[in-house]
Amino acid sequence: MKNFSKYIQYYKSIAAITLGLMYIAVGIKHFTDPEIFIAITPPFVYFKEAAVYFTGIIEIIGGALLLTKKYRRNGGVLIIILLLLVFPANIYLVFSQEAQAAFQGTRSDALIRLPFQIPLIFIAYWHSKKKTSRWLELFCILSFPPTIIYFLNL
């Protein structure tokens, strides 16, 4: 059982590093291609460009924190906050044809994307804790590969 726990910690570290790099890459994209993110920002957000740059910075910092074991907890918490902040943009993407066109997707694509936010939140929570329940561990272990595969294919 001790070896199994060691493998889980190794897997968890690989997941954190993979996610960290993914968040950094997407955060950088907020600066290199902000138009996409501005287009999916809901109308109730007044300073769309500033919001896109702000969330890009949070994404880069959160991703960088996930890369180091010492700051992984902070990175997980920051990513949870980020995912909750940008969730309205994912909902807006479902209902706005203009946002879908900018994102180069369809409403079906947006509907498929929406539920993937849930495992990302749970996985970030998993990384924010040293010890979690076996059920959460199992959920994160099983949901990580399809979630990453989905986002890498966007």
Task: Give structural notes.
- With 154 residues, this protein is mainly alpha-helical.
- It has one domain.
- 81% of the residues lie in helices and 0% in strands.
- It has helices at 2-32, 34-39, 48-67, 72-95, 97-102, 107-113, 117-128, 134-152.
- Helix 4 (72-95) packs antiparallel against helix 6 (107-113), helix 4 packs antiparallel against helix 7 and helix 7 (117-128) packs across helix 8 (134-152).
- The model has no long low-confidence stretch (mean pLDDT 93).
List keywords for this structure.
154 residues, mainly alpha
| N-C termini distance | 38 Å
The shape is globular
* Oligomer description: single chain
Q: Classify the secondary structure makeup into a structural class.
A: mainly alpha
Q: What does the main sheet amount to?
A: none
Helix-strand pattern = HHHHHHHH
Amount of beta strand = under 5%
How many strands appear in the DSSP assignment?
A: 0
Kindly summarize this structure in a few lines.
The protein has eight helices and no strands. It has 154 residues and is mainly α.
Write the layout of secondary structure elements.
Layout: H1 2-32, H2 34-39, H3 48-67, H4 72-95, H5 97-102, H6 107-113, H7 117-128, H8 134-152
